[in-house]
Amino acid sequence: MIRKIITLFLIIIPINSYALIEIDITRGNLDPLPVAVSPLSIDEKSRKSFEKALEKKNIGEEISSIVENNLRTSGLFNPLSKEAFLQAPDIANLKPRFEDWNLIKAQALITGKVNYVDDKLRVEFRLWDVLAAKEMMALAFTTVPSNWRRVGHIISDKVYERLTGEKGYFDTRIIYVAEEGLKTQRIKKLAIMDQDGFNNKFLTLGNELVLTPRFNPTSQMVTYLSYFKNMPRVYLLDIETGTQEVVGDFPGMTFAPRFSPDGKKIIMSFAKDGKSDIYTMDLVNRIVERITNHPSIDTSPSYSPDGKYITFNSDRSGYQQIYIMKSDGSDVKRISFGNGLYGTPVWSPRGDLIAFTKLHKGKFYIGVMRTDGKGERLLTENYYQEAPSWSPNGRVLIFYRETKTNDKGEGFTAKLWSIDLTGYNERQIKTPTDASDPSWSSLLSN
Amino acid sequence: MILSKIFKNILIVLTASLVLSACATKKEIATDIEGSMQGDVYTGTDTVEYLAEGVPDRVFFATNESILTTASRETLRAQAAWMRKNSSINVVLEGHADERGTREYNLALGERRANAAKDYLMTYGISSDRITVLSYGKERPVDSGSNPLSWSKNRRSVTVKAN
After folding, report:
1. B141 vs A384: CB contact, 8 Å cut-off?
2. For chains A and B, what is the number of CB pairs under 8 angstroms?
3. Which residues of chain B lie closer than 8 angstroms to A405, CB-CB?
4. pLDDT in tens, A133-151
5. Any idea which fold B4-161 has?
6. Which among A351, A321, A317, A355 is positioned nearest to A338, based on CA atoms?
Protein backbone atom coordinates (compact mmCIF):
# COMPACT_ATOMS: atom_id res chain seq x y z
CA MET A 1 0.00 0.00 0.00
CA ILE A 2 2.72 2.34 0.94
CA ARG A 3 5.67 3.04 -1.20
CA LYS A 4 3.69 2.11 -4.27
CA ILE A 5 0.46 4.02 -3.93
CA ILE A 6 2.31 7.22 -3.62
CA THR A 7 3.23 8.53 -7.00
CA LEU A 8 5.26 11.20 -5.48
CA PHE A 9 7.41 13.53 -7.48
CA LEU A 10 9.79 15.65 -5.57
CA ILE A 11 10.87 18.57 -7.65
CA ILE A 12 13.56 20.48 -5.95
CA ILE A 13 13.52 24.08 -6.92
CA PRO A 14 17.19 24.96 -6.91
CA ILE A 15 18.21 27.54 -4.44
CA ASN A 16 21.39 28.61 -2.79
CA SER A 17 21.19 29.69 0.78
CA TYR A 18 23.05 29.28 4.00
CA ALA A 19 21.52 28.04 7.19
CA LEU A 20 21.93 30.45 10.01
CA ILE A 21 19.49 28.62 12.22
CA GLU A 22 20.94 25.58 13.89
CA ILE A 23 19.40 23.19 16.33
CA ASP A 24 21.51 21.03 18.54
CA ILE A 25 19.53 17.85 18.96
CA THR A 26 22.14 16.05 21.00
CA ARG A 27 21.13 17.62 24.26
CA GLY A 28 17.75 18.09 25.86
CA ASN A 29 16.11 20.99 24.17
CA LEU A 30 14.72 23.25 26.82
CA ASP A 31 14.45 26.10 24.41
CA PRO A 32 12.58 24.90 21.33
CA LEU A 33 12.96 26.96 18.18
CA PRO A 34 10.04 29.34 17.60
CA VAL A 35 8.66 28.58 14.18
CA ALA A 36 5.66 30.00 12.32
CA VAL A 37 3.75 27.50 10.20
CA SER A 38 1.62 29.62 7.94
CA PRO A 39 -1.39 27.71 6.60
CA LEU A 40 -0.76 26.53 3.05
CA SER A 41 -2.66 28.88 0.81
CA ILE A 42 -5.28 27.52 -1.56
CA ASP A 43 -7.37 29.07 -4.29
CA GLU A 44 -11.13 28.73 -4.02
CA LYS A 45 -11.47 26.35 -6.97
CA SER A 46 -8.85 23.95 -5.61
CA ARG A 47 -10.33 24.21 -2.14
CA LYS A 48 -13.73 23.10 -3.43
CA SER A 49 -12.27 20.23 -5.44
CA PHE A 50 -10.44 18.89 -2.38
CA GLU A 51 -13.47 19.40 -0.20
CA LYS A 52 -15.36 17.15 -2.57
CA ALA A 53 -12.59 14.58 -2.91
CA LEU A 54 -11.43 14.39 0.69
CA GLU A 55 -14.29 15.84 2.75
CA LYS A 56 -11.89 18.31 4.28
CA LYS A 57 -12.97 21.92 4.28
CA ASN A 58 -9.55 23.44 3.82
CA ILE A 59 -6.83 20.97 2.91
CA GLY A 60 -4.15 23.66 3.10
CA GLU A 61 -4.87 24.29 6.75
CA GLU A 62 -5.13 20.55 7.44
CA ILE A 63 -1.69 19.83 5.98
CA SER A 64 -0.06 22.72 7.81
CA SER A 65 -1.55 21.54 11.09
CA ILE A 66 0.05 18.11 10.55
CA VAL A 67 3.39 19.88 10.12
CA GLU A 68 2.77 22.00 13.18
CA ASN A 69 1.85 18.98 15.30
CA ASN A 70 4.90 16.98 14.17
CA LEU A 71 7.28 19.82 14.88
CA ARG A 72 5.76 20.40 18.30
CA THR A 73 5.87 16.75 19.38
CA SER A 74 9.52 16.52 18.34
CA GLY A 75 10.20 18.81 21.27
CA LEU A 76 12.70 20.78 19.20
CA PHE A 77 10.30 23.35 17.80
CA ASN A 78 7.73 25.70 19.23
CA PRO A 79 5.09 26.42 16.58
CA LEU A 80 3.63 29.87 17.26
CA SER A 81 -0.07 30.61 17.51
CA LYS A 82 -1.60 31.40 14.13
CA GLU A 83 -3.63 34.19 15.68
CA ALA A 84 -0.50 36.28 15.94
CA PHE A 85 0.29 35.99 12.24
CA LEU A 86 0.09 39.32 10.48
CA GLN A 87 0.59 38.25 6.90
CA ALA A 88 -1.92 36.35 4.78
CA PRO A 89 -0.77 32.85 3.69
CA ASP A 90 -0.75 33.49 -0.07
CA ILE A 91 1.25 36.69 0.18
CA ALA A 92 3.66 35.23 2.74
CA ASN A 93 4.47 32.42 0.33
CA LEU A 94 5.38 34.87 -2.41
CA LYS A 95 7.50 37.17 -0.31
CA PRO A 96 7.35 37.15 3.46
CA ARG A 97 7.47 40.48 5.23
CA PHE A 98 10.26 39.35 7.56
CA GLU A 99 9.77 42.29 9.97
CA ASP A 100 6.27 41.01 10.70
CA TRP A 101 7.48 37.48 11.44
CA ASN A 102 10.41 38.83 13.43
CA LEU A 103 7.97 40.83 15.52
CA ILE A 104 6.23 37.68 16.75
CA LYS A 105 9.65 36.13 17.44
CA ALA A 106 9.49 33.50 14.73
CA GLN A 107 12.96 32.36 13.73
CA ALA A 108 11.81 30.07 10.96
CA LEU A 109 8.77 30.38 8.75
CA ILE A 110 7.05 27.74 6.66
CA THR A 111 4.77 28.86 3.86
CA GLY A 112 3.25 27.09 0.91
CA LYS A 113 0.46 26.57 -1.50
CA VAL A 114 -1.84 23.76 -2.55
CA ASN A 115 -3.34 23.25 -5.99
CA TYR A 116 -5.71 20.78 -7.54
CA VAL A 117 -4.07 19.81 -10.83
CA ASP A 118 -5.46 17.01 -13.04
CA ASP A 119 -7.11 15.23 -10.08
CA LYS A 120 -3.81 15.40 -8.23
CA LEU A 121 -2.64 17.20 -5.15
CA ARG A 122 0.19 19.59 -5.88
CA VAL A 123 1.93 21.14 -2.91
CA GLU A 124 4.79 23.54 -2.81
CA PHE A 125 6.34 24.78 0.37
CA ARG A 126 9.14 27.07 1.42
CA LEU A 127 11.21 27.32 4.53
CA TRP A 128 12.46 30.79 5.43
CA ASP A 129 15.12 31.98 7.81
CA VAL A 130 13.42 34.99 9.36
CA LEU A 131 16.45 36.66 10.92
CA ALA A 132 18.58 36.32 7.82
CA ALA A 133 15.56 37.21 5.64
CA LYS A 134 16.35 34.31 3.31
CA GLU A 135 14.73 31.31 1.73
CA MET A 136 16.34 28.12 3.04
CA MET A 137 14.48 25.53 1.04
CA ALA A 138 11.75 25.26 -1.55
CA LEU A 139 10.16 22.02 -2.66
CA ALA A 140 7.15 21.02 -4.71
CA PHE A 141 5.51 17.67 -5.08
CA THR A 142 2.50 16.07 -6.67
CA THR A 143 0.61 13.03 -5.49
CA VAL A 144 -2.85 11.48 -5.32
CA PRO A 145 -5.12 13.51 -3.00
CA SER A 146 -5.61 10.62 -0.57
CA ASN A 147 -1.93 10.93 0.36
CA TRP A 148 -2.48 14.34 1.90
CA ARG A 149 -1.43 13.31 5.40
CA ARG A 150 1.82 11.89 4.08
CA VAL A 151 2.49 15.20 2.34
CA GLY A 152 2.32 16.86 5.76
CA HIS A 153 4.73 14.31 7.16
CA ILE A 154 7.18 14.66 4.28
CA ILE A 155 7.21 18.46 4.64
CA SER A 156 7.89 17.94 8.37
CA ASP A 157 10.79 15.61 7.58
CA LYS A 158 12.29 18.09 5.12
CA VAL A 159 12.07 20.94 7.60
CA TYR A 160 13.49 18.80 10.41
CA GLU A 161 16.37 17.68 8.21
CA ARG A 162 17.16 21.18 6.98
CA LEU A 163 17.19 22.63 10.48
CA THR A 164 18.82 19.83 12.47
CA GLY A 165 21.09 18.28 9.87
CA GLU A 166 19.60 14.84 10.52
CA LYS A 167 16.90 12.87 8.79
CA GLY A 168 13.40 13.17 10.20
CA TYR A 169 11.09 10.40 11.34
CA PHE A 170 7.61 11.72 10.59
CA ASP A 171 6.74 9.88 7.39
CA THR A 172 6.75 6.58 9.25
CA ARG A 173 4.35 4.13 10.79
CA ILE A 174 4.11 2.18 14.01
CA ILE A 175 3.04 -1.44 14.16
CA TYR A 176 1.89 -2.54 17.59
CA VAL A 177 -0.37 -4.90 19.52
CA ALA A 178 -3.83 -3.52 20.30
CA GLU A 179 -5.16 -4.90 23.58
CA GLU A 180 -8.64 -5.19 25.03
CA GLY A 181 -10.47 -7.05 27.75
CA LEU A 182 -9.64 -8.45 31.15
CA LYS A 183 -6.03 -8.79 32.16
CA THR A 184 -6.51 -12.53 32.59
CA GLN A 185 -8.06 -12.99 29.13
CA ARG A 186 -6.51 -10.25 27.08
CA ILE A 187 -7.56 -10.05 23.43
CA LYS A 188 -4.68 -8.95 21.25
CA LYS A 189 -4.64 -7.80 17.62
CA LEU A 190 -1.96 -6.52 15.32
CA ALA A 191 -2.54 -2.86 14.52
CA ILE A 192 -0.77 -0.27 12.43
CA MET A 193 -0.95 3.50 12.41
CA ASP A 194 0.91 6.56 11.23
CA GLN A 195 3.57 7.80 13.61
CA ASP A 196 1.20 10.55 14.81
CA GLY A 197 -1.57 8.07 15.66
CA PHE A 198 -3.73 8.66 12.57
CA ASN A 199 -4.93 6.04 10.06
CA ASN A 200 -5.15 3.31 12.69
CA LYS A 201 -5.96 -0.07 11.20
CA PHE A 202 -6.29 -3.52 12.74
CA LEU A 203 -4.51 -6.28 10.84
CA THR A 204 -5.78 -9.35 12.71
CA LEU A 205 -9.15 -10.11 14.24
CA GLY A 206 -8.10 -11.10 17.74
CA ASN A 207 -8.98 -14.78 17.41
CA GLU A 208 -5.51 -15.78 18.48
CA LEU A 209 -2.91 -14.22 20.69
CA VAL A 210 -0.35 -12.15 18.76
CA LEU A 211 2.83 -10.57 20.14
CA THR A 212 5.95 -8.59 19.25
CA PRO A 213 5.40 -7.41 15.64
CA ARG A 214 8.52 -5.91 13.99
CA PHE A 215 8.94 -4.10 10.68
CA ASN A 216 11.28 -5.16 7.97
CA PRO A 217 13.57 -2.11 7.59
CA THR A 218 13.49 -2.38 3.80
CA SER A 219 9.94 -3.35 2.89
CA GLN A 220 6.35 -3.51 4.07
CA MET A 221 6.80 -6.91 5.69
CA VAL A 222 6.24 -7.59 9.34
CA THR A 223 7.36 -10.49 11.49
CA TYR A 224 5.49 -11.39 14.67
CA LEU A 225 4.53 -14.18 17.05
CA SER A 226 1.10 -15.78 16.68
CA TYR A 227 -0.58 -18.46 18.78
CA PHE A 228 -2.55 -19.70 15.75
CA LYS A 229 -3.89 -23.19 16.59
CA ASN A 230 -2.22 -22.86 19.99
CA MET A 231 1.18 -23.26 18.39
CA PRO A 232 3.28 -20.19 19.15
CA ARG A 233 5.33 -19.60 16.02
CA VAL A 234 7.05 -16.73 14.25
CA TYR A 235 5.07 -15.53 11.23
CA LEU A 236 5.81 -13.31 8.29
CA LEU A 237 3.09 -10.92 7.15
CA ASP A 238 2.99 -8.82 4.00
CA ILE A 239 0.91 -5.80 4.95
CA GLU A 240 0.35 -4.83 1.31
CA THR A 241 -1.24 -8.12 0.34
CA GLY A 242 -2.26 -9.54 3.73
CA THR A 243 -0.58 -12.89 3.01
CA GLN A 244 1.17 -14.60 5.87
CA GLU A 245 3.25 -17.69 6.46
CA VAL A 246 5.03 -19.51 9.26
CA VAL A 247 8.75 -18.87 9.38
CA GLY A 248 10.63 -22.16 9.24
CA ASP A 249 9.56 -25.58 10.42
CA PHE A 250 10.48 -25.84 14.08
CA PRO A 251 9.21 -28.57 16.41
CA GLY A 252 8.35 -26.07 19.15
CA MET A 253 7.89 -22.43 20.02
CA THR A 254 9.71 -19.80 17.97
CA PHE A 255 9.58 -16.25 19.28
CA ALA A 256 11.31 -12.87 19.63
CA PRO A 257 11.67 -12.32 15.84
CA ARG A 258 13.44 -9.40 14.18
CA PHE A 259 14.71 -8.72 10.68
CA SER A 260 18.33 -8.33 9.70
CA PRO A 261 19.18 -4.77 8.56
CA ASP A 262 19.08 -5.82 4.89
CA GLY A 263 15.64 -7.33 5.46
CA LYS A 264 16.72 -10.71 4.07
CA LYS A 265 16.87 -12.75 7.25
CA ILE A 266 14.75 -13.25 10.33
CA ILE A 267 16.55 -13.76 13.61
CA MET A 268 14.57 -15.32 16.47
CA SER A 269 14.59 -17.71 19.42
CA PHE A 270 13.57 -21.34 19.34
CA ALA A 271 12.65 -22.95 22.67
CA LYS A 272 13.16 -26.65 23.21
CA ASP A 273 13.57 -28.77 26.33
CA GLY A 274 13.71 -25.73 28.58
CA LYS A 275 16.45 -24.04 26.59
CA SER A 276 16.05 -21.18 24.17
CA ASP A 277 18.63 -20.55 21.47
CA ILE A 278 18.99 -18.04 18.67
CA TYR A 279 18.46 -19.01 15.04
CA THR A 280 18.27 -17.22 11.73
CA MET A 281 16.30 -18.06 8.64
CA ASP A 282 17.23 -16.71 5.23
CA LEU A 283 13.98 -15.56 3.61
CA VAL A 284 15.26 -16.21 0.09
CA ASN A 285 16.78 -19.69 0.27
CA ARG A 286 14.98 -20.72 3.50
CA ILE A 287 18.21 -21.94 5.10
CA VAL A 288 18.01 -22.10 8.89
CA GLU A 289 21.16 -21.48 10.90
CA ARG A 290 21.72 -21.99 14.58
CA ILE A 291 23.59 -19.04 16.11
CA THR A 292 23.79 -19.88 19.83
CA ASN A 293 23.97 -23.24 21.58
CA HIS A 294 23.82 -22.91 25.33
CA PRO A 295 21.68 -24.50 28.08
CA SER A 296 20.49 -21.03 29.13
CA ILE A 297 17.77 -18.80 27.74
CA ASP A 298 19.08 -16.80 24.79
CA THR A 299 16.48 -14.43 23.37
CA SER A 300 15.59 -10.91 22.13
CA PRO A 301 18.27 -10.83 19.40
CA SER A 302 18.88 -7.60 17.48
CA TYR A 303 21.44 -6.96 14.70
CA SER A 304 23.83 -4.04 14.51
CA PRO A 305 22.98 -1.79 11.53
CA ASP A 306 25.95 -3.16 9.55
CA GLY A 307 24.75 -6.72 10.19
CA LYS A 308 28.12 -7.79 11.63
CA TYR A 309 27.06 -8.15 15.25
CA ILE A 310 24.08 -9.30 17.27
CA THR A 311 23.05 -8.11 20.71
CA PHE A 312 20.84 -10.47 22.72
CA ASN A 313 19.48 -11.28 26.13
CA SER A 314 20.76 -14.31 28.05
CA ASP A 315 20.57 -15.65 31.59
CA ARG A 316 23.75 -17.76 31.21
CA SER A 317 25.25 -15.82 34.12
CA GLY A 318 22.27 -16.82 36.27
CA TYR A 319 20.17 -13.76 35.54
CA GLN A 320 19.03 -11.80 32.49
CA GLN A 321 21.90 -9.77 31.06
CA ILE A 322 22.80 -8.21 27.72
CA TYR A 323 25.42 -9.76 25.46
CA ILE A 324 26.90 -9.09 22.06
CA MET A 325 28.46 -11.54 19.62
CA LYS A 326 29.55 -11.68 16.00
CA SER A 327 26.70 -12.49 13.64
CA ASP A 328 28.01 -16.07 13.24
CA GLY A 329 27.63 -16.60 17.00
CA SER A 330 31.33 -16.34 17.89
CA ASP A 331 32.97 -13.98 20.39
CA VAL A 332 30.11 -13.82 22.88
CA LYS A 333 30.68 -10.99 25.36
CA ARG A 334 28.55 -9.80 28.25
CA ILE A 335 28.16 -6.02 28.20
CA SER A 336 25.68 -5.22 31.01
CA PHE A 337 27.24 -5.12 34.45
CA GLY A 338 25.12 -2.62 36.38
CA ASN A 339 22.86 -3.52 39.29
CA GLY A 340 19.66 -5.27 38.30
CA LEU A 341 18.38 -7.32 35.39
CA TYR A 342 18.64 -6.28 31.77
CA GLY A 343 16.44 -7.29 28.84
CA THR A 344 15.21 -6.40 25.33
CA PRO A 345 18.44 -5.01 23.87
CA VAL A 346 17.92 -3.15 20.57
CA TRP A 347 20.74 -1.78 18.48
CA SER A 348 20.36 1.86 17.47
CA PRO A 349 20.07 2.54 13.71
CA ARG A 350 23.06 4.87 14.17
CA GLY A 351 25.08 1.93 15.48
CA ASP A 352 26.58 3.52 18.57
CA LEU A 353 24.03 2.63 21.26
CA ILE A 354 21.95 -0.24 22.56
CA ALA A 355 18.58 0.54 24.13
CA PHE A 356 17.31 -1.82 26.82
CA THR A 357 14.82 -2.49 29.60
CA LYS A 358 16.23 -2.71 33.10
CA LEU A 359 14.65 -4.05 36.26
CA HIS A 360 16.16 -2.82 39.49
CA LYS A 361 14.62 -2.81 42.97
CA GLY A 362 11.12 -3.39 41.66
CA LYS A 363 11.22 -0.56 39.10
CA PHE A 364 11.50 -0.76 35.34
CA TYR A 365 13.71 1.56 33.34
CA ILE A 366 14.25 2.26 29.67
CA GLY A 367 17.87 3.11 29.08
CA VAL A 368 20.74 3.16 26.62
CA MET A 369 24.36 2.07 26.82
CA ARG A 370 27.24 2.09 24.40
CA THR A 371 27.91 -1.14 22.55
CA ASP A 372 30.80 -1.92 24.92
CA GLY A 373 28.34 -1.62 27.82
CA LYS A 374 29.79 1.63 29.09
CA GLY A 375 28.00 4.94 29.47
CA GLU A 376 24.69 3.54 30.74
CA ARG A 377 21.99 6.22 30.86
CA LEU A 378 18.51 5.53 32.24
CA LEU A 379 15.93 7.66 30.44
CA THR A 380 12.74 6.85 32.32
CA GLU A 381 11.58 4.96 35.42
CA ASN A 382 8.15 3.41 35.99
CA TYR A 383 6.15 0.61 37.61
CA TYR A 384 6.31 -1.39 34.39
CA GLN A 385 7.68 -0.53 30.96
CA GLU A 386 9.69 -2.37 28.35
CA ALA A 387 10.44 -3.06 24.71
CA PRO A 388 12.00 0.12 23.32
CA SER A 389 12.01 0.55 19.52
CA TRP A 390 14.11 3.22 17.78
CA SER A 391 12.86 5.92 15.46
CA PRO A 392 14.63 5.47 12.09
CA ASN A 393 16.96 8.41 12.83
CA GLY A 394 17.90 6.98 16.22
CA ARG A 395 16.74 10.05 18.16
CA VAL A 396 13.51 8.81 19.75
CA LEU A 397 12.47 5.59 21.49
CA ILE A 398 8.94 4.24 21.57
CA PHE A 399 8.01 1.65 24.22
CA TYR A 400 5.01 0.48 26.24
CA ARG A 401 4.05 1.03 29.83
CA GLU A 402 1.63 -0.89 32.05
CA THR A 403 -0.07 0.33 35.21
CA LYS A 404 -0.30 -1.36 38.57
CA THR A 405 -3.74 -2.71 39.43
CA ASN A 406 -5.56 -1.83 42.66
CA ASP A 407 -6.43 -4.20 45.53
CA LYS A 408 -9.23 -5.72 43.48
CA GLY A 409 -6.98 -6.30 40.50
CA GLU A 410 -8.65 -3.47 38.58
CA GLY A 411 -7.23 -0.51 36.72
CA PHE A 412 -4.81 -2.25 34.39
CA THR A 413 -3.84 -0.27 31.30
CA ALA A 414 -1.13 -0.61 28.67
CA LYS A 415 -0.12 2.42 26.59
CA LEU A 416 2.52 3.48 24.12
CA TRP A 417 5.00 6.18 25.11
CA SER A 418 7.92 7.85 23.46
CA ILE A 419 10.96 9.62 24.83
CA ASP A 420 13.91 11.39 23.26
CA LEU A 421 17.34 9.89 23.54
CA THR A 422 18.16 12.94 25.65
CA GLY A 423 15.68 11.75 28.32
CA TYR A 424 13.44 14.72 27.61
CA ASN A 425 10.14 15.02 25.80
CA GLU A 426 8.37 11.97 27.21
CA ARG A 427 4.85 11.67 25.81
CA GLN A 428 2.01 9.21 25.45
CA ILE A 429 1.01 8.17 21.95
CA LYS A 430 -2.74 8.00 21.68
CA THR A 431 -4.20 4.72 20.47
CA PRO A 432 -7.88 3.74 20.13
CA THR A 433 -7.39 0.79 22.51
CA ASP A 434 -4.72 -0.23 24.99
CA ALA A 435 -1.44 -0.94 23.26
CA SER A 436 1.92 -2.68 23.63
CA ASP A 437 4.96 -3.98 21.70
CA PRO A 438 5.45 -1.01 19.35
CA SER A 439 7.83 -1.21 16.39
CA TRP A 440 8.84 1.84 14.38
CA SER A 441 9.08 1.58 10.57
CA SER A 442 11.80 3.06 8.40
CA LEU A 443 11.07 6.28 6.56
CA LEU A 444 8.47 5.48 3.89
CA SER A 445 9.84 8.05 1.45
CA ASN A 446 13.39 9.33 0.81
CA MET B 1 11.88 -11.66 37.23
CA ILE B 2 13.02 -9.88 40.28
CA LEU B 3 16.10 -11.01 42.08
CA SER B 4 14.78 -13.34 44.68
CA LYS B 5 16.66 -11.38 47.31
CA ILE B 6 14.73 -8.25 46.48
CA PHE B 7 11.62 -10.27 46.43
CA LYS B 8 12.20 -11.71 49.85
CA ASN B 9 12.71 -8.23 51.21
CA ILE B 10 9.41 -7.15 49.75
CA LEU B 11 7.81 -10.20 51.26
CA ILE B 12 9.27 -9.54 54.66
CA VAL B 13 8.00 -5.98 54.54
CA LEU B 14 4.62 -7.19 53.38
CA THR B 15 4.37 -9.84 56.03
CA ALA B 16 5.50 -7.41 58.68
CA SER B 17 2.91 -4.85 57.69
CA LEU B 18 0.23 -7.49 57.59
CA VAL B 19 1.14 -8.70 61.03
CA LEU B 20 0.99 -5.13 62.27
CA SER B 21 -2.38 -4.46 60.72
CA ALA B 22 -3.61 -7.85 61.88
CA CYS B 23 -3.14 -6.77 65.46
CA ALA B 24 -5.68 -4.07 64.92
CA THR B 25 -8.14 -5.79 62.61
CA LYS B 26 -8.51 -9.20 61.04
CA LYS B 27 -6.08 -11.81 62.23
CA GLU B 28 -7.23 -14.47 59.78
CA ILE B 29 -6.17 -12.52 56.68
CA ALA B 30 -2.60 -12.28 57.92
CA THR B 31 -2.38 -15.99 58.64
CA ASP B 32 -4.01 -16.70 55.32
CA ILE B 33 -1.39 -14.86 53.31
CA GLU B 34 1.46 -16.13 55.41
CA GLY B 35 0.10 -19.60 55.00
CA SER B 36 -0.15 -19.36 51.21
CA MET B 37 3.44 -18.53 50.31
CA GLN B 38 6.69 -20.14 51.28
CA GLY B 39 9.68 -18.08 50.26
CA ASP B 40 7.90 -16.56 47.32
CA VAL B 41 6.38 -19.80 46.06
CA TYR B 42 2.61 -20.04 46.24
CA THR B 43 1.46 -22.85 48.53
CA GLY B 44 -2.26 -22.06 48.67
CA THR B 45 -5.07 -23.80 46.85
CA ASP B 46 -7.01 -20.76 45.69
CA THR B 47 -6.51 -21.25 41.98
CA VAL B 48 -5.84 -24.97 41.95
CA GLU B 49 -8.16 -27.27 40.03
CA TYR B 50 -8.12 -31.05 40.12
CA LEU B 51 -7.54 -33.51 37.30
CA ALA B 52 -9.01 -36.22 39.53
CA GLU B 53 -9.52 -36.58 43.24
CA GLY B 54 -6.24 -35.86 44.98
CA VAL B 55 -4.56 -34.83 41.70
CA PRO B 56 -3.94 -31.05 41.65
CA ASP B 57 -3.49 -29.62 38.17
CA ARG B 58 -0.67 -27.14 38.82
CA VAL B 59 2.68 -26.48 40.41
CA PHE B 60 4.19 -23.12 41.43
CA PHE B 61 7.62 -21.55 41.11
CA ALA B 62 9.81 -18.98 42.82
CA THR B 63 10.60 -15.74 41.00
CA ASN B 64 12.87 -16.35 38.02
CA GLU B 65 13.14 -20.05 38.92
CA SER B 66 12.07 -23.27 37.30
CA ILE B 67 13.12 -25.56 40.17
CA LEU B 68 10.39 -27.89 41.43
CA THR B 69 9.65 -27.60 45.15
CA THR B 70 8.93 -30.63 47.36
CA ALA B 71 5.21 -29.85 47.11
CA SER B 72 5.44 -29.55 43.33
CA ARG B 73 7.15 -32.91 43.03
CA GLU B 74 4.41 -34.46 45.13
CA THR B 75 1.75 -32.95 42.85
CA LEU B 76 3.56 -34.20 39.75
CA ARG B 77 3.91 -37.72 41.18
CA ALA B 78 0.15 -37.74 41.71
CA GLN B 79 -0.30 -36.56 38.12
CA ALA B 80 2.05 -39.27 36.84
CA ALA B 81 0.16 -41.95 38.78
CA TRP B 82 -3.11 -40.66 37.37
CA MET B 83 -1.70 -40.65 33.83
CA ARG B 84 -0.41 -44.19 34.23
CA LYS B 85 -3.87 -45.30 35.29
CA ASN B 86 -5.47 -43.40 32.40
CA SER B 87 -3.14 -44.38 29.62
CA SER B 88 -5.27 -42.88 26.84
CA ILE B 89 -5.04 -39.37 28.26
CA ASN B 90 -2.53 -36.93 26.83
CA VAL B 91 -1.70 -33.62 28.46
CA VAL B 92 -0.53 -30.11 27.65
CA LEU B 93 1.78 -28.52 30.20
CA GLU B 94 1.12 -24.79 30.12
CA GLY B 95 4.02 -22.77 31.51
CA HIS B 96 3.51 -19.26 32.83
CA ALA B 97 5.45 -16.34 34.28
CA ASP B 98 4.43 -13.33 36.35
CA GLU B 99 4.03 -9.82 34.94
CA ARG B 100 7.30 -8.50 36.36
CA GLY B 101 9.48 -9.44 33.44
CA THR B 102 10.06 -8.66 29.81
CA ARG B 103 7.69 -10.42 27.45
CA GLU B 104 10.20 -12.38 25.40
CA TYR B 105 12.25 -13.63 28.32
CA ASN B 106 9.03 -14.69 30.04
CA LEU B 107 8.00 -16.78 27.04
CA ALA B 108 11.27 -18.69 27.40
CA LEU B 109 10.87 -18.92 31.17
CA GLY B 110 7.33 -20.35 30.83
CA GLU B 111 8.72 -22.97 28.46
CA ARG B 112 11.50 -23.81 30.90
CA ARG B 113 9.02 -24.22 33.78
CA ALA B 114 6.67 -26.46 31.81
CA ASN B 115 9.69 -28.52 30.78
CA ALA B 116 10.76 -28.95 34.39
CA ALA B 117 7.32 -30.45 35.03
CA LYS B 118 7.55 -32.56 31.88
CA ASP B 119 10.95 -33.98 32.85
CA TYR B 120 9.59 -34.97 36.23
CA LEU B 121 6.54 -36.69 34.74
CA MET B 122 8.88 -38.57 32.39
CA THR B 123 11.00 -39.70 35.33
CA TYR B 124 7.84 -41.26 36.70
CA GLY B 125 7.25 -43.25 33.58
CA ILE B 126 5.15 -40.99 31.39
CA SER B 127 6.15 -41.09 27.74
CA SER B 128 7.11 -37.76 26.17
CA ASP B 129 4.66 -38.59 23.34
CA ARG B 130 1.83 -37.93 25.76
CA ILE B 131 3.08 -34.51 26.80
CA THR B 132 3.01 -31.25 24.87
CA VAL B 133 4.61 -28.13 26.28
CA LEU B 134 3.04 -24.73 25.67
CA SER B 135 4.41 -21.50 27.10
CA TYR B 136 2.17 -18.50 27.61
CA GLY B 137 4.86 -16.33 29.19
CA LYS B 138 3.04 -13.61 31.10
CA GLU B 139 0.08 -13.51 28.73
CA ARG B 140 -2.45 -15.50 30.77
CA PRO B 141 -2.27 -14.63 34.48
CA VAL B 142 -4.90 -16.24 36.71
CA ASP B 143 -4.76 -13.37 39.16
CA SER B 144 -4.78 -9.80 37.87
CA GLY B 145 -3.36 -8.30 41.06
CA SER B 146 -0.11 -6.34 41.15
CA ASN B 147 1.31 -7.76 44.38
CA PRO B 148 3.64 -10.58 45.43
CA LEU B 149 0.81 -12.99 46.26
CA SER B 150 -0.87 -12.53 42.88
CA TRP B 151 2.45 -12.92 41.11
CA SER B 152 3.15 -16.13 43.02
CA LYS B 153 -0.13 -17.64 41.77
CA ASN B 154 0.79 -16.71 38.21
CA ARG B 155 4.23 -18.37 38.21
CA ARG B 156 2.97 -21.85 37.42
CA SER B 157 2.85 -24.86 35.19
CA VAL B 158 -0.64 -26.19 34.65
CA THR B 159 -1.35 -29.70 33.42
CA VAL B 160 -4.34 -29.67 31.08
CA LYS B 161 -6.04 -32.68 29.53
CA ALA B 162 -5.47 -32.59 25.77
CA ASN B 163 -8.12 -35.15 24.80
Report:
1. no
2. 114
3. 144-146
4. 999 999 998 999 999 999 9
5. 60s Ribosomal Protein L30; Chain: A; (3.30.1330)
6. A321
